[in-house]
Write a structure and sequence with these properties.
Layout lengths: L2 H14 L6 H12 L5 H22 L7 H20 L1 H8 L3 H21 L15 H12 L8 H11 L4 H27 L5 H28 L6 H18 L1
Helix pairs in contact: 1-2, 1-3, 1-10, 2-6, 3-9, 3-10, 4-7, 4-9, 6-11, 7-8, 8-9
């Protein structure tokens, strides 16, 4: 991997992290297209630059939500299922799931149909939760359980949490914002755990590439967040489901 590769992957991460299209899946497939060998460093790189995108949430939301103790308690509750699953199955996820393009393609493809079907069937109730601070702890745990499914690359953390939130009775804009906030402890924990286990094996040049990807994803993610918040006011997620199916088919032909 070189700095150009890191810059491209940073852009891909920044765009895709908060959209329901799987940033991990796009990073894995983009790496394949760029001809990057899928080493342990590249796996760590793809995890770590996601934190760059997540930092954008802190920049945008620290006054509105992250200083609200009621919101923080619900974010912590939702983080519990993912923390348990991620820590317990870290080795399996790192060795067998990350980098597996077949899993990514199928997850993107099937996830696209799930997203479309769910949107067609879902009807928002009049008493849907209208504030992040009003989410119950039961709803937070349900959302966290859905998020834990996204340890499978290609599923999309964003898509899983949105579906979990809508199904448990949250308004669309509320679950999207809660998904942003829940990403903070999730990706922070994933990055720190991975760096703790692998950082000693990295060279100085590799850390430079990591820095480039991190900063690029942070900048691009700010734009992506603002886009998504504007998009959901007028549209459903069906278009993202269609995109997932099309990109899965495209990558299937390209990688085979």
């Amino acid at each position: 991997m070189n700095i150009f590769h890191a810059f491209i992957l940073g852009i891909v991460e920044g765009i895709s992290e908060f959209l329901p299209i799987s940033s991990t899946g796009h990073l894995i497939l983009t790496s394949r297209l760029l001809g990057i060998s899928y080493t342990d460093y590249v796996k760590t790189f793809e995890i770590a630059i996601q934190l760059g995108a997540i930092i954008s949430v802190i920049v945008l939301y620290w006054k509105r939500f992250l200083l609200n103790f009621e919101v923080l308690k619900r974010v912590c509750a939702a983080f519990i299922p993912t923390a348990i699953i991620g820590f317990a199955f870290y080795d399996i996820i790192k060795k067998f799931l990350l980098g597996n393009s077949n899993i990514v393609i199928w997850a993107l493809f099937l996830g696209g149909f799930v997203l479309i079907i769910f949107e067609l069937l879902h009807r928002e109730k009049k008493d849907a939760v209208k504030e992040v601070a009003s989410i119950t702890y039961k709803q937070a745990l349900i959302i966290g359980a859905f998020q834990s499914i996204a340890v499978i690359p290609g599923v999309s953390r964003s898509a899983a949490t949105v579906i979990g939130g809508l199904a448990s009775g949250l308004r669309r804009d509320v679950i999207v914002e809660f998904s942003f906030l829940l990403a903070v402890p999730t990706m922070l924990a994933a990055t720190l755990l991975d760096l703790y286990k692998n950082a000693n094996a990295f060279t100085q040049d590799q850390f430079v590439c990591l820095g480039v990807g991190f900063v690029t994803s942070f900048i691009v993610a700010i734009v992506a967040i603002k886009f998504l918040l504007g998009f959901i006011k007028k549209h459903s997620f069906i278009s993202f489901g269609v995109y997932r199916i099309l990109i899965a088919i495209l990558f299937w032909f390209v990688t085979k």
